[in-house]
Write a structure and sequence with these properties.
38% strand; 14% helix; mainly beta
Length: 158
């Protein structure tokens, strides 16, 4: 056991829930991993939160963990974090908001409502994060790499 771990043990229980044994030897079931900066620094800062909403352990860097706990946490995070990637903008019903967008994502075509221009968050290096009216966050890894039609539609909202 490494002395650098912020917990003694991390595993799935018989019901498939994340279970943690803290440094004091106390066992906690139903642990939820929460990234401090999921978009800008996904590897840095991970809180392991107990079922009552209190932080049980802090992981400064996910990639620094041994393979077993790291892979387990990455799997749990992937199940929690659903961020489809926008591949192209097919159509927009109006250039005023709210507006209905038809887009193609890495998970297929979908329609969603953009409530306001503020729901399009600009990140570094041409990245965008677009939040639908239902709270689903769509990622645009590089808005400059989109096709001409998509860029033309998107620019009307930026």
């Amino acid at each position: 056991m490494s002395t650098t771990l912020p917990f003694r043990d991390l595993q799935l229980d018989a019901n498939g829930r994340l279970a943690l044994t803290d440094l004091n030897g106390d066992h906690h079931t139903g642990v939820t991993p929460v990234r401090a900066h999921p978009i800008t620094a996904p590897d840095e800062g991970l809180s392991l939160v107990g079922s009552h909403g209190h932080e049980l352990a802090w992981v400064p860097r996910l990639s620094a963990l041994p393979d077993g706990p790291r892979k387990l946490l990455e799997t749990e995070l992937a199940a929690r974090e659903f961020h489809p990637t926008l591949k192209r903008l097919i159509s927009v019903n109006t250039f005023a908001t709210p507006s209905t967008w038809r887009i193609d994502t890495d998970r297929g075509e979908v329609d969603f409502v953009l409530k306001s221009e503020e729901d399009i968050r600009r990140l570094e290096e041409g990245r965008l994060l677009i939040t639908s009216s239902h709270g689903v966050q769509l990622e645009v890894p590089d808005r400059w790499a989109l096709d001409k039609h998509s860029k033309r539609l998107l620019e009307r909202f930026l």
